[in-house]
């Protein structure tokens, strides 16, 4: 993606729906870049927004009437449908670019196309990083996007330049392709991490580097909500197959080990019988 120099310098009025940890993380960089932020959320973030100097709307109607160029959806995957249904989207009087940053892509794409008027633009994105991995900057971190329905290229390019100007690796791909790849990477990672949580692995005095990686994975997964993990499974149609693949892979390894153990025991028994 390449933005024109003029569009990349445009400041935007960005309305954020959902101001949890990730919404705050993105807003911080947008504010530094000079963009104007407004916020609405089911949780009361009025005190935090007051400290940041940005308007917080408990009521979605004045939020939607605030003349935003972009409405950025930062809700959880699980709550997206209910949140969109709660917004009086019919009150929008100007073309607005709707952007989501969820970790699945077909689900928000389908919902946004379903609830938005035809004249509203839709950009589906997934920043492949978060507050921890992006705390020292976004350079070389991946940012996936799909221009699902974009006619206002200037506003779209200006939004994408938020990430491009920070040095992100911009990756344009379809929502379907994203979900296929994410099921094999992000979902599998979270699934293994959740298994490590369940069996309670802990650091030891004789850690190998590989084991330290597993402990770190367990800790990272522990810091993310189970809602995120369940959303990655429920709303990515490719995740079920990957879960089955994990199960089959575990069973294959288990059977190989049991077979080798049986062969070793048989060998010991034969040696004993033969006087070895």
UniProtKB/TrEMBL annotation:
Domain of life: Eukaryota
Biological process according to GO: tyrosine biosynthetic process
UniProt key word Oxidoreductase: yes
Regions annotated as coiled coil: 236-263
Keyword vocabulary terms for this entry: Coiled coil, Oxidoreductase
Molecular-function GO terms, alphabetical: arogenate dehydrogenase (NADP+) activity; NAD+ binding; prephenate dehydrogenase (NAD+) activity; prephenate dehydrogenase (NADP+) activity
Residue span(s) of domain Prephenate/arogenate dehydrogenase: 12-276
SUPFAM superfamilies: NAD(P)-binding Rossmann-fold domains (SSF51735)
InterPro entries: NAD(P)-bd_dom_sf, PDH_N, Prephen_DH, TYRAAT1/2, TYRAAT2_C
One Pfam entry name: TYRAAT1_C
Protein name (record): Prephenate dehydrogenase
